[in-house]
Amino acid sequence: MGSLLKLTDTTKQFQGLRAVDAINLDMKENTIHALIGPNGAGKTTTVNMITGVHSVTSGTIEFDGHDITGMPTYKIARLGIGRTFQNIKVFPTMTLLENVMVGGHQCTKLGALRTIFDIRGAKREEEMLKEKAENILKKLGLYELRNELMQNLPYGRQKISEIGRAMMTDPKLILLDEPAAGLNPSERGELIKVIKAAYGEGLSFFLIEHNMDVIMSISDYITVLSFGKLIAEGTPQEIQNNPEVIASYLGEKYKQKMAEE
Amino acid sequence: MEKKSNTMNNKKRNIILICTAAAVVLILPWILTTDYQIMVMNKVLIYTVVVLGLNFITGLTGQMNLGTAGMFALGAYATAVAATSYGISPWIGLVLAIVMGLLVGRGLGYPSLRLKGVYLALTTIGFSEVVRLVAANWVSVTGGTTGIRNIPYYSLAGYVFDTQTKMYYLFAVFVAFGIFCAYRLADSKWGRIFKSLRDNADAVEMSGVNIASCKILAFTVCAIYGCIAGALYAHFMGYINPSSFTIDLSTNFVIMLMVGGLGSVVGNIFGAAVVTILPEILRVFENYYQLIFCTIVLVGAIFFPEGWMFAGIKVIRKMVKKLRKREHITGEMGGGE
Ligand SMILES: Nc1ncnc2c1ncn2[C@@H]1O[C@H](COP(=O)(O)OP(=O)(O)OP(=O)(O)O)[C@@H](O)[C@H]1O
Ligand SMILES: [Mg+2]
Predict the structure, then answer these.
(1) Residue A44 C-alpha to ligand 1 middle, in angstroms?
(2) Which of A212, A221, B81, B143 lies 20 to 30 A from A3 at CA?
(3) Which residue of chain A has the CA closest to B214?
(4) DSSP secondary structure letter of residue B148
């Protein structure tokens, strides 16, 4: 299995704070790779560096054979990385369908002038986009809500719709920053189903999550960060039993709960 | 099936609406009694073009632009100087105006990538003032504060558009074309991208969209519309001078956009018409007409932030619904007997 995403000594320094400290991470193709760690560990910062939102202080990031260190966000996205945000970023004044369709804009060809005068071509493109978005919404179980304004949808639905928007670019990898946060248990169940189904179709996921049920049930491999440093990596089984991870993140209670089950 | 007949109905309704609008536009000069009234209509048409463009920046992309007077002035001066100093045809002047628009769109688009909100608004004001000051001081080219006189009318194959009515029909054609383009663009994937930029630019960029080029596109469209309108204005007025292109004009364009409702092409036309015509009607109040007009606009902005037209449509829809409900109820009662 080749490597899909590779961080080498990647570091982010915010003035006095070393938010991410020389981490090395190798994510394989066709996996669900989780990144966990206590609050402020540098997980979101890592994702922000991968997506070019933050510059990298030192080290490199490779994706699918390309060196993406220092590339602008939109170019990184075009190489096949999609993303959702910890604090959701949606278009509240637009409908759910429009929200998802924005994700597919990049895959269309017509420039502004041709959009105006090539009436048939523009219509064809629009229908193509719409059909694709509708199919994705069906997969997410949100099809019935497609004409609702985003701001009128419950938080959980808005959050899941971000995955749909990310899927519109046909990415190889989607970075999910705490997708289950703020979701109720049934929505969480749906989320896991959605991720598993997309994984089954060949998508890889890089997943930040605090909810251990979600993590343990879907991830193939886990990396643990604490205070910017990589403190452990391994399969879910290995991580659950790693004393350092239990001490700094999972806690003794978690161990007891696991033992009971 | 139902969906299909629905879109058919919509299509029919749209065709009827467009035909009615066209008929009204065609017969308006016969209804209006004085040349002055037609002149006001001509202003409405020219301002509509500006607002159609401004809609892309302030309406859809959500960035305040108080520099439309500058764009308007550049278009006007480009064609006026070309026509009076070099004897160049106003039609080529129109092309010059478009080139101006392309340049200005880029020039203002770049700062918009870094500046937001008030700072961008101030930058656009600055741009507009620079244009006005250059026009006032570059005497050898622009005629300074006295401006440029004797700007020729548009003419086509010997036919001169020299009366208000003739110009009215010419401008109506321009506006129709402008509406067509604006509608096609605002209603397309581009309009959608502009709106999404207003809501959340980060999410758009993460979808692989080069947001810098999209913002520049929005500014360029706005500038082209503004410059074309300026060119029409120059040949409509026959003379121009820097005092016509102050910040007041820019604010007026923003008010037109607000009154019509941000983001809607039909609203743009409505806004341009109301804000141009209403003060003329209010002139019966003599000294107080400006005060009354401003009060109306202010109250409107507070109570109908989505634009007067949409507020009106909402009220009508509600009334129709209520009436229907009543009919329904009485109908059911009748059935029960
Ligand atoms: N733009 C920034 N400027 C300065 N410091 C920052 C910035 N962004 C994050 N930090 C700091 O970097 C550290 C890591 O933050 P980060 O958001 O990556 O944590 P996280 O692991 O995602 O935590 P959480 O689980 O709470 O989301 C924190 O101490 C945070 O305060
Ligand atoms: Mg975070």
Answers:
(1) 7
(2) A212
(3) A112
(4) B
pLDDT digits (tens, 9 = 90+) for B215-260: 999 999 999 999 999 999 999 998 999 998 999 899 999 999 988 8
Which among B207, B220, B222, B306 is the top mutation candidate for probing chain A, defined by the most A β-carbons within 10 Å of its own β-carbon?
B207
- Output the CA A42–ligand 2 centroid distance in Å: 7
From CA B256, how far away is CA B53, in angstroms rounded?
12
User: Ligand 2 centre and the CA of B176: distance in Å?
Assistant: 51
Calculate the alpha carbon distances from A256 to A214, A215, A236, A252, B115 in Å.
Answer: 18, 18, 16, 6, 54
Token pair of A143 as six digits: 């099809």
B208/A119 CB distance under 8 A: no
What is the value of ipTM here, to two decimals? 0.91
Structure-token pair, residue B181: 């383009």
Banded model confidence at residue A255, pLDDT cuts 50, 70, 90:
low
Query: What is the bridge-based pairing of β-strands A173-177 and A66-67?
Result: unpaired
Instruction: Give the up-direction half-sphere exposure of residue B68: CA atoms within 13 A in the CB hemisphere.
Output: 33
CB contact under 8 A, A169 and B205: no
Q: Is A42 in the pocket of ligand 1 (CB under 6 A)?
A: yes
| Dist. CA A141–CA A152, nearest whole Å | 17
Paired tokens of A30? 């066709």
Closest CA to B262 of B108, B54, B120: B54
Contacts of B193 (CB under 8 A, 6+ apart): A102, A105, B204, B209, B214
> Using CA atoms, how far apart are residues B32 and B38, in angstroms rounded to an integer?
7
> Domains in chain A, ordered, with CATH?
3-91+155-260 (3.40.50.300)
The pairing of strands A204-208 and A173-177 is: parallel
pLDDT per position as a tens digit, B170-190: 999 999 999 999 999 999 999
CATH fit for domain B33-293, picks 1.10.10, 1.10.3470, 1.20.58, 2.60.40:
1.10.3470
For residue A108, which of A84, A124, A90 has the smallest C-alpha distance?
A124
Q: What angle do CA B316, B320, B325 make, to 5 degrees?
A: 150
Contacts of A161 by beta carbon, 8 Å cutoff, 6+ apart:
A90, A96, A99, A100, A140, A142, A150, A153
The token pair at B133 is 């000051």
**Residue length of chain B:** 337
